Amino acid sequence: MTETGFEKAPARDRRRFPGVSSRAYEHPADRSALVALRKLSGFDTVFRALSGLLPERSLRLLFLSDSVRVGEAQFPHLYAMLRDACYILDLEKVPQMYVQQDPKPNAMCIGLDEPIIVVTTGLVELLDEEEMRAVVGHEVGHALSGHSVYRTILLFLTNLALKVAWIPLGNVAIMAIVTALREWFRKSELSADRAGLLVGQDLQASMRGLMKIAGGNHLHEMNVDAFLAQAEEYESSGDLRDSVLKIMNMLPRTHPFTTVRAAELKKWSESRDHQRIMDGHYPRRDEDKDTSVTDSFRQSAAHYADSVRTSKDPLMKLVGDIAGGAGDLGGRLRDKFTGAGSGTGTGAGPAAEGKGGATEQG
Predict the structure, then answer these.
(1) 1 pLDDT exceeds 80?
(2) b/e per residue, 178-202, with b = 16+ CB within 10 A?
(3) What phi and psi values does residue 107 have, to the nearest 5 degrees?
(4) Phi then psi dihedrals of residue 93, to 5 deg
(5) Which region holds residue 323: left if phi is over 0, alpha if psi is between -120 and 50, else beta?
(6) What's phi and psi for 109, nearest 5 deg?
(7) What pLDDT score does 153 carry?
(8) Which residues lie across from 109 on neighbouring strands?
(9) Pairing, β 107-110 against β 116-120
(10) What percent of the residues of the chain are helix, what percent strand, and what percent coil, each to the nearest 5?
(11) What are the beta bridge partners of residue 69?
(12) pLDDT the model gives residue 52
């Protein structure tokens, strides 16, 4: 480990995952958010309508005419990474990839019939080869999971919402779906980060890339351990008011906060699930048709229950206490926001004593 917290890049003899299913790396919150999205009132109608109306051919022509298509003659190093990522994740058809002039570091995978990967010049100039490899793997993971369809609809509806903002009811209906799509997409980014790690197989490169996206090309001024400590502080510090502010800050975003992504990815890299994949034990694509929807629901529910149980966020801790029978929700929310202890004032009577004398936990 160097003084900046980074190790040397590993040997480039990387594992391949023939026939791997996207279920191998998909975050449980990704799957459950997508299920919730599909159940949203009006979503099926909008999805069917937009699937036939979205100008995908126009989108492809736009990138073809105003961006640089990656291939053997243009950005060949990116093309090699793209083909390598598709080989590792066993994606048979290599998606088209474009470099778009934009100083803001960004990448996306869009398209209804066939995915298109777009990276900006800002991202290409910011990241080194191994960091970029993780990003390309991230986008190929989106393609393998079929995320590009919903991402395309999100982009279209976001633009539409801006155009019809003057129509109160119309905008409310659209924004309900946009908000649900954003919630799903934030979770899908966690899945794609895992795919990027499976392709790059270099956790330090993934960490560096996320740090650069957050703080620019100043690695000599940054430290991975200190960066991850920010995620710990973000999750555990403050009170219920801070928890609400976190939610409000997150709602307009399409991506999770960068420190949170880094912490989530590091946690997964150390998990048994990740090790089993690296050992060659993973769900196969040809088994997807036999996958139990009930099992998926159960896994998602177990994930959320565990998240609530282990979370250090004040609101999640309160939810866990309520679920465990630790007190009255309304009273405890009031006490949290007003700073009153659960053992003082009104609300600390026989009912509280009947629960074993539970007191406020700081």
Answers:
(1) no
(2) bebbbbbbbbbbbbbbbbbbbbbbb
(3) -150, 150
(4) -100, 120
(5) alpha
(6) -125, 115
(7) 78
(8) 117
(9) antiparallel
(10) 65, 5, 30
(11) 98
(12) 57
Strand partners, 100: 120
Q: Rounded to an integer, what distance in angstroms lies between the CA atom of residue 149 and that of residue 48?
A: 12
Cβ density class 289-299: b for 16+ within 10 Å, e for less: eeeeeeebeeb
User: Token pair for residue 328?
Assistant: 């009255």
Residue with tokens 């403050």: 238
Q: Residues 9, 204: contact at Cβ < 8 Å?
A: yes
How far apart are the C-alpha atoms of 153 and 148, rounded to whole Å? 9
Spatial CA neighbour of 273 closest among 187, 203, 185, 198? 198
CB 174 within 8 A of CB 161: yes
Nearest to 81 by CA among 138, 8, 20, 146: 138
Instruction: Tell me if residue 286 falls in helix, strand or coil.
Output: helix
Share of the chain above pLDDT 90, in %: 43
Q: How many residues does the chain have?
A: 362
CA-based nearest residue to 342, from 330, 211, 230, 169: 330
Place of tokens 């920010």: 230
Structure tokens at 201: 């197989």
pTM over 0.90: no
Hey, what amino acid is at 133?
Answer: R
Strands 68-69 and 96-100, by their bridges, are antiparallel
- Continuous H helices in the chain: 28-39, 43-53, 56-66, 76-88, 121-126, 129-145, 147-163, 168-200, 203-215, 224-236, 240-250, 258-269, 272-278, 293-310, 314-323, 329-338, 350-354
Which residue bears the tokens 């799509």?
181
Contact criterion met (CB below 8 Å) for 69 and 96: yes
DSSP class of 79 = H
Query: And the tokens for 343?
Result: 């053992």
Interior angle at CA 53, CA 47 and CA 57, nearest 5? 120
